[in-house]
Structures are given as structure tokens and as C-alpha cells.
């Protein structure tokens, strides 16, 4: 059974935005009530440790949501998977070539699907990122 992709319309976009705002408000209210109740990450009454809270993300610290950020994000993931950058969890380079190839292929799909729709700067960024990653992949897989 195949489903047709849902078409993005201004109406569906507004519904999605409203749903996201409602979910964010509910999470904020839940966090505020837990903070007021004095939650802690010590042992619970049944002896288990309470899950640690994730650190709050400061929206002003997030990069802009634009094409360059998207290309940079995939490129960075590919570099980590190639072992050119340390794994953020272990702090050590951990090459995972199939994963690196996946991220490089995703950038290739992005290049194919945006052909003729990018500014000259965006096109250069994507082409140079793909070229450098492909060359590094070929060298490292030898």
C-alpha cells in the first residue's frame, strides 16, 4: 500500500506551526512544574537513579537554518565518519567508512535536487565540500 506524499500548503504549514507551538508550550510548562517541584537526579525511592536532565539549548547559540549550515552539518558528519575529526562522544577518531559514504551520498542527492536553484556561493560551497570529501574518502579507503 503506497501513500501519496502530503502536499505542503499554507493551511497545512500553519497547522504544523500551531502544533509545534502547542507542543513547545506543553514541554515548557512541564519543565517549569518539575523545576518548581525540586526535581533532582539522585536515587529514587525504589533505589533507581532518576534520569539526568538534558541541558537546555540556548536558541541564540544555534546556527542559522540555511543552506550553508545544512551542507556544513552533513560535511562535518562525513568527516567524523571518515575519522578526520574525533568522535564527539569518545573523543577519538573512529572511521566508519559506510557511514561516511552515506553522508557524502546525501550531499550528492542535495546537489542533484538543487541543480540550477542555488546562488553561486551555495553552489561553490556544495561542489567544493563534495570534492574534498570524495577525495578524502578515496584516499582513506585505499
Give structural notes:
- With 142 residues, this protein is mainly α.
- Helices cover 58% and strands 0% of the residues.
- It is built from four helices and no strands.
- Helix 2 runs antiparallel to helix 3.
- The protein starts with 9 loop residues before the first helix and ends with a helix.
Q: What's the short story on this structure?
A:
The protein is mostly helical and 142 residues long. The protein is built from four helices and no strands. It has helices spanning 10-36, 67-82, 97-113, 120-141.
**Uncertain stretches of 5 or more adjacent residues:** 1-8, 38-42
Secondary structure: helix percent: 55-70%
Q: What's the total number of strands? A: 0
Per DSSP, what share of the residues sits in E-state strands of 2 or more residues?
A: under 5%
Tell me the span between the first and last alpha carbons: 43 Å
Overall average residue pLDDT: 82
User: Radius of gyration, rounded?
Assistant: 21 Å
Output the structural class: mainly alpha
Largest sheet: none
Order of helices and strands: HHHH
Total count of helical runs of at least 4 residues: 4
Amino acid at each position: 500500500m503506497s501513500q501519496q506524499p502530503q502536499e505542503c500548503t499554507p493551511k497545512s504549514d500553519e497547522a504544523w506551526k500551531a502544533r509545534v507551538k502547542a507542543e513547545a508550550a506543553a514541554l515548557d510548562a512541564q519543565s517549569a512544574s518539575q523545576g518548581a517541584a525540586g526535581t533532582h537526579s539522585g536515587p529514587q525511592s525504589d533505589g533507581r537513579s532518576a534520569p539526568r536532565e538534558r541541558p537546555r539549548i540556548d536558541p541564540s547559540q544555534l546556527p542559522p537554518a540555511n543552506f550553508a549550515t545544512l551542507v556544513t552539518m552533513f560535511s562535518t558528519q562525513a568527516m567524523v565518519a571518515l575519522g578526520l575529526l574525533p568522535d564527539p562522544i569518545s573523543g577519538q577518531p573512529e572511521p566508519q567508512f559506510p557511514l561516511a559514504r552515506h553522508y557524502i551520498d546525501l550531499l550528492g542527492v542535495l546537489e542533484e535536487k538543487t541543480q540550477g536553484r542555488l546562488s553561486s556561493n551555495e553552489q561553490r560551497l556544495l561542489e567544493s565540500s563534495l570534492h574534498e570529501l570524495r577525495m578524502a574518502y578515496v584516499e582513506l579507503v585505499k
